[in-house]
Design goal:
- The protein folds into 5 domains: about 10-175, Beta Polymerase, domain 2; about 180-330, Four Helix Bundle (Hemerythrin (Met), subunit A) (Up-down Bundle); about 335-435, Hydrophobic Seed Protein, CATH 1.10.110.30; about 440-620, Hypothetical protein af1432 (Orthogonal Bundle), CATH 1.10.3210; about 625-885, no CATH class.
- By secondary structure, it is an alpha+beta fold.
- It comes from Halopseudomonas oceani.
């Protein structure tokens, strides 16, 4: 190609002649080319043309630099482009990989080579270079897969082409890396690369080049084809029968999309950046022309397109790599064929159709093949030719197909298999079958939510949830999930749980309550698949209430018997409770692995156990608060008397405490607190007790109990001190005695969400830090200014504050939803102190980039807030203060409701 606008040799020579140093002319040419190519990209020029234009321009610059060398015409040296540049592909900041190839010793050319490379560096070209003789190339290529791969794609930029041809002959398959050996190595390399990304295309910040379904997968196909056929032109795979025309178009268009994303990414980042970081996703969506809708952000639409493209490319990669395996590795093997039925057989562990017309003649076989694989777990997968036939016939899945009793029966039977449910649903999704059979599922394929809480797309999360449900049935997971394992093993119909899991997030992205909309879809699914009424109602109920248990455990005071009774009333019976508990465990683990910790496990287990007790007692028999308090006190007294504490001393202390204290603490904790308080000398300052509790209620978290004179700045001082001590507060229970002493219990984890453990030095540090801070609360520690983590910076949104009085009228509830930032809780403590507000209770929930905290507060007289203007000022102050810690702030109005 010739493009004088991009590079004019005559003009360039004229520029060179004007100055003694060539550097200015080279830099000017590079700058002008960069500007023109960027302009062409903005104008929408075809991406194939752009990356080849950049490579062509680089060719011209390198050839001009090489021509200045004394050795330029020597037949013993040549300049070669290798790697991606050797393919004639260059993105804005891609490496320019060069090989200076020698026929003999490098010494005669040393000065020329050094001058050449120095010039390239001086003009700002980022080159990766090697200097080798033909013999050295042969030696390195034999030992290193990367070297042989780079050399295979070489082309001559300057010098004698015969030199490169001699090198290519020295590294051909007759000397090293037969096509079978090369394929095995490339397959292993791909498996290792995919493992770094957890073998999924669906990462929050995927790598356009290296993630599954990325550009490297396409290049792997091309490399294997080049080694076997002698060409890396993917269109020739059609002529060789490895691809058909529609598949080639998918491959070519997918590559073009990823090229366009990578080109824009390099331009935005100003460097060779292949990671789709949050830093760039929104800007990329804008550059590439995506616009938001009422239900989806522009960035979510862009990322859904990305995920769908890479999933299609992964499917083609599977097909082609299996094709290569059959041709290169198994062609000479004797076929081991085992019939399954008249439609399918197993050839060398892979299932295939008995003839190419199976799906056309019997469309139900499109679903049957996945059921057969689940029923025969020894089958490793689908043969490449049959994958292609599935793709070619999936258009047969229409409304008539979906309502055919044969097909509905086959699909339901898959959920009742002992093994392979998740694996084959995932295959159905990858081959485009699941989204066609369930159009509602097709809408969530590749759909992501732009946050840090949901780290998978909706379809990947859904299938991951089913995978976690399957784990709960395996003996090896009994220790990790003991209660869920026992419950799962006694579920009457586990298949209903998988169906509920499949539909629990099916309505994401439609607008409205996805739980309610999903329940409607789930009911229609069950009806179409002829499930009994009881099964249908259970599946639909689970979908509608799949968030109920996690939100109750994390946002409600589940030590309160009335809260437990309310939850039990909503659940209704033990069967629903069992199904919901197991579904909740799997949902949390499948959403984000970092969410699951021992503290959440203990909350859910406590909620399950207390609800089970309430259901046994009967929903018509609400808990008797006085009886519960009496039982707690009596059990605590038994412990105290055994430990030598006088009953009278305990009862004197308890007379100063309200009912809430005994409702919100276990008997063992009441005894623990009471013994320490009775023995504590107030002159020694605040009493701080710390224990890594083995109690089931707080398993895995550390309980910190504080007993000290009450004053309004106590909460602010405490949370600020804990912030400085790198503690993450999970729960706060704050009680004030009639003698104006505060008895506060905090449940904490380390800042990374892990357990503090039993490290004596760490516990001593925490205890001393709190004693020092609380000995003089008026001078409590200042809020630490910490750097906001990179990912959190990209999720700034206005804090939402809701203030209302609880039904009893005794307390005010303040609900806060805000971006998570270092020191947020300490800032909240300072704001409440400034407003002379006391904190009676707090539930702290962090989900990804968002915190959802609930504070139970009162005014200085321990009364609910009754002044609407005070509430408005409090609300606005919280919004203003927390917004000022964000990269961007914005106006926001939150609801306030004074009264029940």
């Amino acid at each position: 190609m010739m493009d004088d606008a991009l590079f004019d040799p005559g003009q360039f020579q004229a520029e060179l002649a004007l100055k003694s140093s060539p550097i200015a002319a080279f830099k000017k040419a590079i700058r002008q080319a960069d500007t023109l190519i960027a302009q062409r990209f903005q104008e929408g020029r075809d991406i194939h043309q752009l990356i080849h234009e950049r490579a062509w321009f680089t060719d011209q610059i390198l050839q001009q630099a090489w021509a200045r060398l004394p050795c330029a015409g020597d037949p013993g040296i040549a300049l070669l482009a290798v790697g991606g540049y050797g393919r004639g592909e260059l993105h804005p900041h891609s490496d320019i990989d060069l090989l200076i190839l020698l026929r003999g010793d490098a010494e005669p050319f040393r000065e020329s080579i050094e001058a050449f490379l120095m010039l390239l560096w001086d003009v700002g070209l980022e080159v990766g270079q090697s200097v080798r003789s033909i013999e050295e190339c042969q030696h390195e290529a034999r030992a290193d897969l990367t070297v042989i791969t780079n050399l295979m794609e070489s082309r001559t930029l300057a010098g004698d082409e015969a030199l490169r041809q001699d090198m290519m002959q020295a590294i051909d398959t007759s000397h090293m890396w037969t096509d079978a050996e090369f394929f095995r190595a490339k397959r292993a390399e791909q498996h290792a690369r995919h493992a770094k990304f957890n073998d999924t295309e669906y990462n929050l910040e995927p790598n356009v080049k290296s993630s599954p379904g990325g550009l490297r997968d396409i290049q792997t196909i091309a490399w294997v084809a080049l080694r076997h056929f002698g060409t890396n032109d993917l269109s020739e795979l059609v002529q060789q029968g490895f691809l058909n025309e529609p598949e080639y178009r998918i491959l070519d268009s997918g590559r073009a999309f990823l090229w366009k994303v990578r080109f824009a990414l390099h331009t935005l980042a100003g460097r060779a950046e292949d990671r789709l970081l949050f830093d760039h996703q929104r800007a990329l969506a804008k550059v590439l022309g995506y616009e938001g809708t009422d239900s989806k952000l522009a960035v979510e639409r862009f990322m859904q397109k990305y995920y769908r493209v890479v999933m299609s490319l992964s499917e083609l990669n599977d097909l082609l790599m299996q094709h290569f395996e059959e041709i290169l590795l198994r062609n000479a093997e004797a076929a081991d064929i085992r019939p399954l039925n008249s439609r399918f057989q197993v050839r060398n562990h892979y299932i295939e159709v008995t003839n190419p017309n199976v799906f056309k003649r019997t469309p139900f076989a499109i679903l049957e093949i996945f059921l057969l694989m689940a029923q025969h777990p020894e089958i490793r997968g689908v043969r490449a030719d049959t994958i292609r036939l599935l793709r070619d016939h999936r258009h047969l899945i229409d409304d008539d197909f979906r309502s055919d009793i044969r097909n509905t029966s086959l699909f339901i039977e898959l959920f009742r298999c002992k093994e392979g449910i998740h694996r084959n649903l995932r295959r159905m999704n990858r081959y485009g079958i699941l989204g066609r059979y369930l159009p509602e599922f097709g809408k969530i394929v590749g759909q992501m939510q732009h946050d840090l809480f949901h780290i998978y797309t909706v379809d990947a999360h859904t299938l991951n949830l089913i995978k976690h449900l399957r784990k709960l049935n395996r003996p090896e997971y009994q220790d990790k999930y003991p209660l869920a394992w026992r419950i799962f093993c006694r579920l009457p119909k586990p298949d209903l749980l998988y169906m509920a899991g499949l539909y629990h997030d099916i309505a994401k992205g439609r607008g409205g309550d996805h739980s309610e909309l999903g329940a409607v879809d789930a009911e229609l699914f069950c009806t179409r698949h002829h499930l009994p009424a009881w099964d249908t109602h259970l599946v639909s109920w689970l979908v509608e209430n799949h968030l109920l248990m996690s939100t109750t455990a994390q946002r409600k005071d589940i030590s309160d018997p009335l809260e437990i009774h309310d939850f039990a009333t909503r659940v209704g019976n033990q069967v629903r409770l069992d199904y919901l508990y197991v579904l909740t465990i799997a949902d949390i683990n499948a959403t984000n692995p970092t969410l699951w910790n021992s503290w959440r496990a203990s909350l859910l287990r406590q909620l399950y156990t207390e609800t089970k007790r309430a259901l046994r007692r009967g929903l018509d028999n609400p808990p008797d608060r006085e009886e519960h308090i009496h039982q707690t006190q009596q059990a605590a007294l038994d412990i105290l008397v055994r430990n030598g504490i006088e009953e009278e001393d305990a009862e004197d202390l308890w007379s100063e405490l309200g009912e809430d204290y005994f409702l919100r603490h276990t008997a063992s904790d009441v005894a623990w607190h009471t013994e320490a308080i009775v023995q504590h000398n107030d002159r020694h300052g605040p009493l701080v007790l710390i224990k890594e509790t083995a109690q089931r209620e707080f398993e895995g978290a550390t309980q910190i109990f504080i007993y000290t004179p009450e004053q309004n700045d106590l909460f602010a001082a405490t949370v600020s001190a804990m912030d400085q001590l790198n503690l993450s507060i999970q729960d706060a229970r704050i009680i004030t005695s009639t003698s104006q002493f505060s008895l506060d219990t905090y449940i904490v984890l380390d800042s990374d969400g892990g357990s503090i453990g039993e490290n004596p030095e760490r516990i001593r540090q925490i205890k001393q830090g709190l004693v020092d801070a609380l000995s003089d609360p008026d001078a409590y520690p200042s809020i630490i200014q910490r750097r906001v983590p990179r990912q959190l910076k990209h999720f700034a949104f206005a804090p939402e504050v809701t203030i209302f009085n609880d039904p009893s009228g005794l307390h005010t509830i303040l609900e806060l939803s805000a971006p998570d930032r270092p020191g947020l809780l300490a800032r909240m403590g300072r704001i409440l102190l400034d407003f002379d507000i006391s904190v009676q209770n707090a539930k702290i929930v962090t989900l990804g980039e968002r915190v959802d905290d609930v504070f139970v507060i009162t005014d200085a007289n321990n009364q609910a807030l009754s002044d609407p203007q005070l509430c408005e000022r409090l609300q606005q102050t919280i919004i203003d203060t927390l917004s000022s810690t964000q990269p961007t702030g914005q106006e926001y109005s939150s609801p306030i409701a004074i009264g029940p």
